[in-house]
Fold this protein.
Amino acid sequence: MTKYNFKNFFLFALLITLYRLFVLYHVNIDLHVDEAYYWGWSKHLDFGYYSKPPMIAWVIHLASMICGDSEICIKLPSLVLYLLTSINVFLIAKELFNEKVAFFSGITFITLPLVSFYSMAITTDSVLLFFYSLTLLFFIKAIKEDKLLYWIIAGITGGLGLLSKYNMIFFAISVIIYLYLCKKEEFKKRNLYIAMVIAAAVYLPNLIWNYHHNFITFQHTKEISEINRKLFHPDKLLNFILAQFGVFGPVFFGVLLYLAVKPCFKECRYKLLYSFAFVFLGFISIQAFLSRAFANWASAAYIAGTVLVIAYLIEKHKINLIKIGIAINLIAAVLFYHYHDITKMLNITLTSKKDPFKRVLGWNEVAKKLKPIVQKYNYPLMFDDRVLMAEMIYYLRPDAFNAVMFNPNGKIKNQYDMDTKLKIGKSYIYVTKENQAKKYFENSKLITVINVPLYPDFNRTYKVFFMKRFKGY
């Protein structure tokens, strides 16, 4: 008979994590542009950055201090954080239900497609989900035991969540809705407000940073949401909803949708899970309808969503459906992780449209071909593309630490536009697809063309120019 205890859950979760670590070594992929971008931030610690609050940079900095700047080391915190988050999910379910619900909730979470995919990279979601789940755990403990200590911890972790990703703010909305439904008396007590003040205080350094930088991060958040463009896009809402089958898994998201349209619980523990799952999912769905939303934007909804779905299925004696859902998610993960092995075994020729790993291949090879030029000319590199600049700063380290972003219109579109400036009279090595900078320099000369073949229909191709003496924009 299966023992639904923490030990067995943890052994399973640890094995999954170690398997993912093996996969990271096996697939031999480069850093994704955002990983390289965040790694660059981690070399210049601050309380904020152009597009995100600072936690992701702090985490990468800590990892680099421990084990260096290799791709594996940069990605490693993601594996650890998802393991810890699955433990938090186990503990949340145990607080609300029992070890059986906790066991399957923890295993379900660690095998979600969302987690399987993002375990391959360090992202703001991995950090957010850890602090979100930890805050939810201590909020539940605070409600159950009415101890100030738990409220204080929830305030601290809530603030750290805000320093990880701004949509942590939906947590506060879920709290208010749940308390209104089940615990109105908490509004008359000081503990809730103490936790809120603590969370605000923890977050305050990032707010001050934004104040001194014209609230640039909030401007970026507004721009990426496209809320100021044409409104109302039912097609994008449909695409977002369909994408959630791939994020949460077809079985579990199907059950979650059923619970959304046919609420069937009156107990407060279920109302709590509804509040934290559907408020988050609801707001992001509205965002998708009004303008757009990426599939992962609702990721935190699946902390409570996982426990809700598993608790419902166990109450309805649908253990086999849970196992089927987990099996489907695991099979999808294995197919994704070993995609190159499978296509090679089946003698399938990959193209740029058939390879999900396209965006994380070829960058190291570009850097290898660029490095001799950088060392020969000994001038700073100049780029006009954030993706290329982030990848080259990482893969040419330390030769590209003084790289600059070519920005003739002066519009701030990324961290490099904020931090780097071309100097009058200075010469640069310009790496680009097309030379857009000729008129701003006294002279330009094509040095070489770098070409890295990836597929029959796609190469990474860049031109390298010597740009003599910048005249100004």
Observations:
- The longest strand covers residues 441-455.
- The chain has two domains: 6-339, 362-470.
- Strands lie at 381-383, 404-405, 428-432, 441-455, 458-470.
